[in-house]
Amino acid sequence: MEVNALLSELYIENLAVIEKAEVKLGKNFNVFTGETGAGKSILIGGINAVLGQRVFKDIIRAGTDKAYVSAVFTGVSEAVKSKLSELGYSCDDELIISREICADGKSSAKINSRPANVSALREIGNLLVNIHGQHDSQILLNSEKHIDVLDDFAQSENLLADYRSSFKELQSTAREINKIRQEALKTSQREEYLNQIVEDIGSLNISSGEDETVEARFKFIDNAVSLSEAINTAITCLSGDDSSSGAGEMVARACSEIEVNEELMKELHPLSERLSQAGIEIGDISSELSRLLSSLDIDENEYAELTRRRNELNRIKRRYGPTLDDVIAVYESAQEELSGLTASDETIKRLENKKSELLLEVTKKAEALSEHRQKAAERFVNKVTTELAFLNMPDVKIVVDRKKGKLTLSGMDTIEFLISANRGEAPKPLAKIASGGELSRIMLALKSVLADRDFVPTLIFDEIDTGVSGRAAQKIGIKLREISQKYQVICVTHLAQIAIMADDHMLIEKSTEDARTVTRIKSLDFNERKYEIARILGGDNITKTVLLDAEEQLNSVKKGR
Question: How far, in Å, CA of 283 to CA of 512, rounded?
Answer without folding.
Answer: 139
